Amino acid sequence: MQAVLLYTKQLGDATSFEFNVFDNQFATENLAVRKVMMSMLEAVRPRLTELEVEYNDSMLIEKLGVRRAGELLRFLGSSKENTREQTSQGIVVSRSFRSPMTEEKYQYFYGMKDIAELPHYRLQEGQEDRIVFYFTRYLQLIAPDQESAEAFISGLQAFSLPYKLVPLK
Q1: Which of 20, 75, 107, 143 lies 20 to 30 Å from 49 when distance is taken between CA atoms?
Q2: How many Cβ atoms from other residues are within 10 Å of residue 64's Cβ?
Q3: What φ, ψ does residue 103 adopt, rounded to 5°?
Q4: E strand or H helix that includes residue 65
Q5: Looking at the whole model, is its pTM more than 0.90?
């Protein structure tokens, strides 16, 4: 198995670990990618308080079907009250919502078979991003301290997942 490439960057006390989907050339449902996601989640698990999801109705329905898309959005906390529409020239191009992170939602993300099931999501500590998946481009962990960064690396090692860290300036 080839090593997973992770771009790292210091952001003050925090460390960003970015898994670039294009550079790694793994499908988003590949077990190696899922192990990266699981390691990220475990590294910041106690800090996660909020979930933000952005999606396009037709893309989500195409991927999951009408019923499953609706069930998933409701499960993750979408409601008429908390959903915002993003428009372009009067046309809704995407919707987004925020909801509190719960153990059930954590388990959903930990057990995802395809990290791209949702096109764009942020798992946050308050307003601070901790894990970001952005439209099949990248999956990013922002480890707020050395302990979280080390927990992420330990998670990769526990999964016997070969990795290479590439520092960015």
Answers
A1: 20
A2: 16
A3: -60, -40
A4: none
A5: yes
